[in-house]
Amino acid sequence: MYERLSPRVDQVIKLANAIAREYDQEYVGTEHVLLAIAREGTGLGATILRDSSATEERLRAEVDKLVKASLEDTWVFGRLPGSPHFRNVMARAIEEARDLSSKHVCTEHLLLALLAEKGCVAQAALKSLGVTPKSVRDQVAQAAKSA
Length: 147
Description:
Elements (H helix, E strand, L loop, with lengths): L6 H16 L7 H11 L3 H8 L4 H11 L8 E3 L2 E3 L1 H16 L7 H10 L4 H8 L4 H14 L1
Antiparallel strand pairs: 1-2
Helix pairs in contact: 1-2, 2-3, 2-4, 2-6, 2-7, 3-6, 4-7, 5-6, 6-8
């Protein structure tokens, strides 16, 4: 794992575990990470979601519509096992951070990775709410210019 997860991403992962438990699920999926970004609320990823009118409530409603009865295969990450999509998202977030020359993996990198993970609940929920990879990349670039 990338040794430089930001403290905010550490908090998001903890929240994702808690949200998975709220759903009475025994795995952490992309939908839990997405909801955790929104719930944590202070990262650039959360700001981008809010600017896109993708509030935690709207995201939860979309996730609830998309979650299926069958569970994906799991792998262990932290306390709850993570779905294969979750593993892919974490790996992609690391790549996004490196590509953007970031010293830490942050919530905006998680958000970009969620959007890139085809076939996962989070990507479908974001798409349904009109959040696109281009709009997120544009906002990340704008934030970098402002910093």
